[in-house]
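For concreteness, we quote verbatim a single protein encoded this way:
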Amino acid sequence: MSLKDELKKFSNAKPPMKLLVEPIDIAAEPPVRDMRPRLLPQLGTTGLDLDIAKPYREKMIQKFLGLLDYNSYVPEYYDCEDRALWGMAHVRQKFIGCPIGIVDGIAEYPELSDRQHAIIVFWYEAATETGYEYRYKLWDPLPKSGTSIGEITLDPKSGFHSPQKVIAFPIGNGQVDVPFIKDFFRNSLWPTDIKFSVQFDNKYLEYPLRTYVDEKTGKRIGPGMLEYLEDELYEKDGPFQCIELKRRPEAHKPFDPGADIALTDHDKALIDFVHLRRAYPGCKTGLAIGKPKGDGKSSAVIAIWSKTGGNQPIYWEHKLSEDTKGRIVNDFDPKMIIF
């Protein structure tokens, strides 16, 4: 398939998705295997760290998820996991500490070109006769025919079923007895010393790292992905501003700014990651979680592969405070990469 053929998938989406920056070419798969992680087992979870979790009311999270703009569905380039991660990132930013994640499984939706599917799961506290207990909801940002986005239940005949992997924030530090996730602890992925990757995509597009001039047309192509991150374009007025901010200026402001739980490094990197992937759909990037090395300070960064960089990714570290800016760091030790 040519680049021109691949771009037709964006114009054929319903509604069509307009690309703000033209891709340079079709890209090869990120060389994650050169970093020697292993792929996830058939079943697995990163667990939940309830010590730094803050449950919110069920209806509050559901209402917020229902207000989000999940963008058009473009097979392979902006599909189910992008939409699920979009919801997860914005919930974690709005409701700091909310236990939420994405679930990989199988869907019997006729409009999906691939039965492999990803949805959102979140946990909340429900009152009982003796106190409170954790319960969960499954939420699908991609409705099947004749339905709206929203709460779903496991349905092997016509809906989502056979969940396989659960990647949840805050990432766990041991086994916890919470519904849904506890069934996956026979293949717990955290904590462990083994590196692993979670691969959702198998097709990628090459985008510029920085603005350049096309030699044939003389046209300026940009901004590049690094300029997008450096200038925090998703926070600013203009064509790259986050659609949620365009619709509701308070969308990125915490519901409880006085909460005693802060955004984690994982949250901050995830927020940058989902906005980058939406501005450059199909870009060859990954969310890397592990240990800082070299001049880095964060436990989560964005890995960006490019044609010019070969097998070595660029590691982008989110801004560490409001009076600093995000930057490229010279090294990182990834334990988990989502791409």
Remarks:
- The chain has a mean pLDDT of 85.
- DSSP finds six helices and 17 strands in the chain.
